[in-house]
Amino acid sequence: MSNRVILSVDAMGGDFGPRVTLPACTSVLKKHPALEILLVGEADLLNKQLGRMRLSDDIKARLTIVASGDSVQMDDKPSAAIRHRQDSSMAVAVKMVAEGSAAACVSAGNTGALMAFGRQHLKMQPGIDRPAIIASVPTMQGHCYMLDLGANVDCSEEHLLQFAIMGSVMFEALEGVPARIGLLNIGEEAIKGNEQVRLAHELIRQQKGLNYIGFIEGNDVFAGKADVIVCDGFVGNIALKSSEGLAKLISRKVRRSFTRNLYRRLLAFLAYPVLRELQEQMDPSRRNGATLLGLQGIVMKSHGGANKNCFAYALEQAIIEVEQNVPSKISERLASYLTSKDQ
Amino acid sequence: MSNRVILSVDAMGGDFGPRVTLPACTSVLKKHPALEILLVGEADLLNKQLGRMRLSDDIKARLTIVASGDSVQMDDKPSAAIRHRQDSSMAVAVKMVAEGSAAACVSAGNTGALMAFGRQHLKMQPGIDRPAIIASVPTMQGHCYMLDLGANVDCSEEHLLQFAIMGSVMFEALEGVPARIGLLNIGEEAIKGNEQVRLAHELIRQQKGLNYIGFIEGNDVFAGKADVIVCDGFVGNIALKSSEGLAKLISRKVRRSFTRNLYRRLLAFLAYPVLRELQEQMDPSRRNGATLLGLQGIVMKSHGGANKNCFAYALEQAIIEVEQNVPSKISERLASYLTSKDQ
């Protein structure tokens, strides 16, 4: 990055709070000399923890603590968060984007509350009804993007079309080539699937400017057949989490298999670099950072259980989206679609 | 198995037809001396292929060829199969169960057509509206069962309750202990999820005689938190197939990683037994054989792409369900539920 970028970070969010968010922030600050971070959270606690970290003056100069009140809890309902947590680290971090003091915010906190604050303070893009959660998943060739991953249950076909448009623009902005859009379904033939996907199929097919390649089955998600996979948030969340669950199971079975006896332990020792490389490549949660797409601003959601490296990855993703100016590219494209619709 | 069991097998179904089904049948016949198989398909072709296999007289005596007409194609719609394929190997195999000449049938053909023939010839159990596809998936401790895996899209809460009851009975029949039932959802709190699962949650919770443990998230599917996981067929199909896709991707990455250079090839050679064992344990499609539950008879669906061992596994599963008498156990339990409902 060349120009100055300011991120607001919910320092209290996630399973580990400042223990993870602070070291992640300082490591990303070291890497990006033009980055500044507004660290939102309990000022005393953050000051104390930062004090222990022996930071250079340069890092200290680019790290500002912003005091906030009670944190959002993981079991807070979105409506309760809106009513009672407006001075939480999460809400304040989002508001800083709305006010223009930060270019993007990053939080590992409660997803529902983050969406609610995003809608309240940043507003939706014109033409988009609801935010969608988009994230990348690994494929044989690299990765693809999938949305929605749980922000919306009971989507209409219009919502799925909006996801297709937003996903397409985001992919093109980040990867520099047009996206092949696939619609997640249980069979490749148009007769299969439920009412929702059949209607969405027709709608997306008719939308000009989209490179729509039709239905994608579950087994093709990780095969790289599409660049952007569109689905209802209920289905997307379960598909991704099931796969993460299986990856975790495989990883445990590998560990158990390689520790059963002395010979196998020796093998594991010899094969450690390979096994580690594989684990890193394959964990779907390693590429951490899901974007709340459709808002007039950049909000990045980190896994709640993210460790330092994972949270740092989410920060880096936010920087890339700031540099690529994703929300304004989406709004431009939406404006052109809306115009062509009216004609 | 001690008593005589007769299976009808759709010899023409699946991606490979008799090339896979015949060797699978003969290998299972060798293992089970009390098994008989009615092999349904093109008589000339089957006779020719069996002739090449040099079978013992004992095996020949327990293998009967039943001639059929045109096969069901993978892209036949269920309605077209019902109209035009009544003398297909699949339809004939199902009818033999309906007539009582076989105790169960096994097919690797078109799922929609198999369900349609099942409903037409075997009829539904009283109290069940639609068949559901149930199969086992691996967990850390062993395996659990998941249904529906694609027979039904747009399920009502009543359907999900029926799945819970059927799955519970099947698990108890096969595993000998009561099943912990989980409902697949995107969050553990009752406020999350779509309309369908919220309504089903209430209904299943109130059903006496079920050991319902509440919502299960995607990442818990393979964690063994529940013994039977209930979901809509659209969601279940996508969750399972996505996970299979990820398992395949991991397996390819492992192969690529272990063949990159000579040292790694040597490691792979040394670790071959471990890697092979892992691959066998982890492939969700290896435990082949999905039951069409809710019919008055046993219909086992094999993966279309099953190889000999996988198809043999599906045959073995059918034998177990015959021995455990799963459909009549389900109908008994349903009768007791229906009675308690009326009181």
Automatic annotation (TrEMBL), chains A, B:
Protein name: Phosphate acyltransferase
Catalytic activity: a fatty acyl-[ACP] + phosphate = an acyl phosphate + holo-[ACP]
Entries under NCBIfam families matching the protein: plsX
GO cellular component: cytoplasm
GO biological process: fatty acid biosynthetic process; phospholipid biosynthetic process
Subunit structure of this chain's protein: Homodimer. Probably interacts with PlsY.
Annotated localization: Cytoplasm
UniProt GO MF annotations: phosphate:acyl-[acyl carrier protein] acyltransferase activity
EC number: 2.3.1.274
Pathway the protein takes part in: Lipid metabolism; phospholipid metabolism
Organism this protein belongs to: Neptunomonas concharum
Main location: cytoplasm
Primary role: Catalyzes the reversible formation of acyl-phosphate (acyl-PO(4)) from acyl-[acyl-carrier-protein] (acyl-ACP). This enzyme utilizes acyl-ACP as fatty acyl donor, but not acyl-CoA.
Family of the protein in this entry: Belongs to the PlsX family.
Keywords, in A-Z order: Acyltransferase, Cytoplasm, Lipid biosynthesis, Lipid metabolism, Phospholipid biosynthesis, Phospholipid metabolism, Transferase
Lipid biosynthesis keyword on record: yes
Gene responsible for this protein: plsX
